[in-house]
UniProtKB/TrEMBL annotation, chain A:
Pfam families: TsaD. One of its GO terms (biological process) is tRNA threonylcarbamoyladenosine modification. SUPFAM superfamilies: Actin-like ATPase domain. Residues 32-128 form the Gcp-like domain. It comes from freshwater metagenome. This is Unannotated protein.
UniProtKB/TrEMBL annotation, chain B:
HAMAP family: TsaD. It catalyses: L-threonylcarbamoyladenylate + adenosine(37) in tRNA = N(6)-L-threonylcarbamoyladenosine(37) in tRNA + AMP + H(+). It is an enzyme of class 2 (transferase). SUPFAM superfamilies: Actin-like ATPase domain. It comes from freshwater metagenome. This is N(6)-L-threonylcarbamoyladenine synthase. The keyword Cytoplasm applies.
Amino acid sequence: MKLLSLETATAAGGAALVIDGVVIGESMTTKDRRHAETLLPSAIELLAQAGITVQELDGIVIDVGPGLYTGLRVGIATARSLAMASGSGLYSLTSLEVLANDERLGTSQTVLSVLDARRGEVFAQYFTVENGQRFPQGEPRVLLPGDLIEEMDTRPQSLVVVGDGGVRYQELFAHLQGVEFAPVPLFPSPATAAMMVERGGVTKQDIPSDVTPIYLRDPDAVANFKVAAPSRLADS
Amino acid sequence: MTKEMILAIETSCDETAAAVVDEDLHVLSSVVSSQIDLHASFGGVVPEIAGRAHVELLEPVVQEALEQAGRSIRDPGVVAVAVTTGPGLVGSLLVGLSGAKAMAYAWGVPFLSINHLEGHLFAAQLESDSLVFPYVTLLVSGGHTMLIGVHGPGEYRLMGETIDDAAGEAYDKVARYLGLGYPGGPAIDKLAAQGDPTAFRFPRALPGENLDFSFSGVKTSVVRAVDRSPEINVADVAASFQAAVVDVLVAKSMQAVERIDATAIVLGGGVAANSLLRERTTTAALEHGVQCALPSLAMCTDNAAMIGAAGWHRFRVHGGDDFSIGANPSLVLEMERA
Ligand SMILES: [Zn+2]
């Protein structure tokens, strides 16, 4: 399969081209968060180097989060529009599963994917191993790092924590036994996402415009409004 | 022979819009999906809510615009894709920009980076073949109050602008104060029809040769009048406020027309939908012997067809833009200050 994979869920964004299970190229930038400026030019360069057109692709692969909202929307609008305008398939994965499936991690331990969600929170999800493959436990969540660690006290098994959220709050994990921190990857890699599609098990999206970001939080105004509404009613 | 077409996309604020415009600036389709209901309970546009809505609506709105023009997203038949890159809400702009670049690349056509204000300047050309340069555009919306001399594509003179609130902002604030809800413009316009515009004499700011505007004084006067007498007739307040604002807008527009010997006065922006402003501008233009171009309500408020009109000018004068262009929330329109 010829797959173009786009990644914009975190501060580190970029594109990768994978053909028949071989990573032809991966271009990432961690300098800033100007994904809207760099994403398409990176993809165009990868395709040009490989001498293939966007119409020849079998699929566009996109990380739908959870992650940083503006980046997610840039990536998803780009991926959906590319897929719909060129007629190629669209495949979506979550940031936390891409992180957990990074081959630099190996496949011997349970993985806890943790991404920095800003505002003092993290996005997190567990993945267990079966026959060398990773399986998600529960849904992606947004929570306080302290709450995540509190529930880990009741989790005796050894595990490896991966992602920039784990590194940022590493000190909070210090008292726990059997917890290891993976030095890499800090962020989901678009090449990993494409390899996951190549291996099968990721369903093609029949209606590309149905692919939307995973936010896990209400917009601030809605959250504040929900808090404010009862007192307003009480006033009237 | 079939005419060449441009697809245009606009997502700078709270409307997700797409349009197909042909080389003669005829609108083949113009689809606007308004998010007004999503924002109404917050009394204004909430950027994160707007961003979320844009990403859900973008391709469906584009598909609808292409289908109404007899094409499809797989076979668009367009020669370029034009998109607003500023000014506006950055999170909103980025959705339209990302989609527009991706489609242009996939279709193998240029992408055109368009200033939203330039769209408003050319909106009237979509409905009036007879418009001749130079003309004066009064651009009045929630974000802008400007008098611009339009001498040709890319040749603009800023003749006057607000020194404090935009006209639409003053409408919103007064409407909120009177308890009329959001958006304020249509609510005040409707209520004013039942009121006496001479009941209160609110100030007309910055008279004389100066073409700049100020609306904070009239807003303060309204607040003071209501505070003084809580039993006040709200329709009279709305009518008197509207009269004060429109008086100034029309008087300065006509001064601008005389100053550059313009052939026409053109209205643009959301406040250009105001019924009193349209009526008074029509009368004043007649008195001055110049053409009056009042775009339809759909072309006054934010839409993508106007971006298509500006897109055609950019396509012809400049050609395509680089795919590395980003959104610029405070993008300025290059204008000579006069
Ligand atoms: Zn506008």
